[in-house]
Every structure is written in structure tokens, then in C-alpha cells.
Amino acid sequence: MLHGPGRHSVDFSDICRADDIWAALGPKPNGPWCVVLSANRNKPEIRIVMSMITLREITAATVRVVCALETREEQKRFVAPNALSIAQAYFEPRAIFRAVYADEVPVGFVMWKPADEAEVAYLWRLMIDHNHQKMGYAKQAITQLINLLRDAGYRRMQTSVVLGDGGPLDFYRSIGFVETDAMLANGERVLTRSL
Ligand SMILES: CC(C)(COP(=O)(O)OP(=O)(O)OC[C@H]1O[C@@H](n2cnc3c(N)ncnc32)[C@H](O)[C@@H]1OP(=O)(O)O)[C@@H](O)C(=O)NCCC(=O)NCCS
Which of 2, 39, 115, 184 keeps 20 to 30 A from 29, CA to CA? Predict the structure, then answer.
């Protein structure tokens, strides 16, 4: 599937397999990447370009675009809208939130706060807009967050997930979180990962 800059995507699965494409292009990059199609008709070209993921402060100039980022409809029960997360942070002074940027494009949102336990950070919210999912952005954003938390003296990260089909549990497992026996009062399962 090739995703365009807008909401367009093209499914090539009938005519080519991803493994064949990577075999022809060389090793799959170890990090987020995107496909760049040249607009030059005399020299058609497809390039695989690595994206740089950064966590950036949200400002008066960017808050609207960050609040407009959305998950897929069926994912909405797993995470609050970004506007609500930012409003909740207003009442939780220890919360820190950032926009996730892929190069210069805002693609997601992440929010964390200290947990009740010493040296433990609680990953409160994480989302990647539906137009930008499955490109390694969340994984890279968490890598950035881990570095940031280590530098701030944290030794462990916790999060909690709504269990259910299409939920983020497998994503968190794939980046090193393990399930605990603990459940929050709202029914979310607590996950943990050392830093
Ligand atoms: C969960 C979420 C943040 C993942 O974002 P993403 O940018 O698509 O994830 P990535 O592309 O970085 O995926 C990293 C790895 O996790 C895997 N993965 C991603 N989403 C997955 C899912 N729903 N189920 C299983 N595996 C998943 C990817 O295949 C990838 O594996 P790989 O490294 O072996 O290729 C995104 O799907 C989302 O915003 N979901 C809705 C909100 C939500 O549930 N947030 C978490 C609770 S607060």
C-alpha cells in the first residue's frame, strides 16, 4: 500500500509483494521511511526516504492542527481525542505533552507524567493519525521518549491499555512492554517496561 500526502492510498498488493520490492531495493531501513515519487515525467523515479521523528512542544500556532489529528474510527475507543488530553493536562501540572513530527509534518501526539512510584513514568496518551500509521512513527516516537525519560532519571515506564480487538496491546508488546496483573479502576490493563 502506498499512502499519498492526502487521504489517498494505492493498493499494489495484486501486482507486487513487499518482500520482492525490498529484495530489489536493498535492505529495509531500520526506522521510519516514506516513498517519494518524482514528478518529472522524463525521469520517473521512486525513492525510499527515511523520516526524522521529533517530539515538539505544541504552540498557539500548532494546537489546532494537532487537535485535528485523528485515529481510525474503530480505534477511537482506545484513546481520547488530543483536545481532551491537552485539557486534562491543564489540571495535571506534572503532565508533559508533545506533538510527534515526521520531518516537518505533525503526525501524532504523546503525553506522560510521573507515576506514583519513584523513578517510574506513566505514558498517559499516544496516538498516530490514521493517515500516518504503520510507518514506524509510534515506535520511533517511543524510542525518543525513552531517551528523554532516561535523561530525566526515570528507570521504568508504565502505561495502560483498553483490551480488545484492534487495540494497542500487540503494538506495546512489540516495543518491549509486558503485561502486569494490575488493572486500573476503569478496566485498563497496566503494562510495564524497564528503561
Ligand atoms: C498504536 C499506534 C500508536 C501505533 O502507531 P503506528 O505508528 O502505526 O505504529 P508503528 O508503525 O510504529 O508500529 C511499530 C510496530 O508495531 C506494530 N503494530 C503497530 N500497530 C499495531 C497493532 N494495532 N497491532 C499489532 N501490531 C501493531 C507494527 O507492525 C510495527 O511492528 P514492526 O516494527 O515489527 O514492523 C496507532 O495504531 C494508534 O494511534 N492507535 C490508536 C490509539 C491507541 O490505541 N493508542 C495507544 C493507547 S493510549
Answer: 39
Distance 136 CA to ligand 1 centre (A): 8
Q: Is 168 in the pocket of ligand 1 (CB under 6 A)?
A: yes
**Which residue is listed with cell 485498563?**
188
Nearest CA to ligand 1 atom 27: 171
Q: Find the 145 Cα to ligand 1 centroid distance in Å.
A: 16
d(CA 187, CA 85): 19
* Ligand 1 neighbourhood includes 3 CB (under 6 angstroms): no
**Domains of the chain, earliest start first:** 2-50 (no CATH), 53-194 (3.40.630.30)
Write down the pLDDT at residue 135: 87
pLDDT along the chain (195 residues), means of 10: 56 62 65 64 66 95 98 95 98 97 95 96 97 92 96 97 92 96 93 97
